């Protein structure tokens, strides 16, 4: 093989490496877009945290007392309602000084495990919704009320073993119109953390969400920890 041919291959290789690095940078930039324009997003993701799994792995029983104290008995709680794009998501859209009023926070009662989480979700995600705090928390309630928790999870008293696809199918069976490509299951070290369900921007319908679906748990066997 001549030197010119080798040189040609080298140039092609360098060009491919450059292209891959550019694509990687673009992908990284689409993950989180801080300071996006409020109201400019494609759809919503409702994230429902499985409290026993969160408390088992990440919950500080002092800092997360409302959620993780012995005997709290919480199951699925709202983690957040997140404005999402087909690739990545906006966050922290501001203005920084716009904080929820007591009336707005009353809308969040019974949804989030703590007021602190409700405030955090407003700052990070609610500010990107284009809604006022009161309207955002009302939308969180509206989205949550559209979801039926499968009875086998709503009444779980013992640890259960599932696969991610079977968990998704259980939600599909309980929620007409939902499909497995409209949601994902998140796990950590083989323990269920949360279920994420995609809604249209007006919250009327479930919708496909390829990036969210692909980001789901890759572990085959998942433990659903029972409430303590």
Q: How would you summarize what this structure contains?
A:
This protein is α+β, with helices and mostly antiparallel strands and about 230 residues long. The protein folds into 2 domains: about 1-30; about 35-225, Ribonuclease Rh, Chain A (Alpha-Beta Complex). The protein has 9 helices and 8 strands.
Describe this structure in words.
The chain is an alpha+beta fold. The protein contains nine helices and eight strands. A four-stranded antiparallel β-sheet has the order 3-2-7-6. The longest helix is centred in the first third of the chain and has 29 residues, at 3-31. The radius of gyration is 21 Å and the shape is globular. 33% of the residues are buried. Mean pLDDT is 85; it is low at 3-10 and 12-30.
Give descriptors for this structure.
single chain, 228 residues, alpha+beta, Ribonuclease Rh, Chain A, four-stranded antiparallel β-sheet, 8 strands, 39% helix, disordered N terminus
Low-confidence stretches: 3-10, 12-30
- H/I helix tally: 9
Question: Quick check: average pLDDT?
Answer: 85
Rough outline: globular
Number of domains: 2
CATH classification class of the largest domain = Alpha Beta
Radius of gyration based on Cα positions: 21 Å
CATH topology of the largest domain: Ribonuclease Rh, Chain A
| CATH architecture level-2 label of the largest domain | Alpha-Beta Complex
Largest sheet: 4 strands, antiparallel
Arrangement of strands in the largest sheet: 3-2-7-6
Assign a percent range to the helix content: 25-40%
CATH superfamily of the largest domain: Ribonuclease T2-like
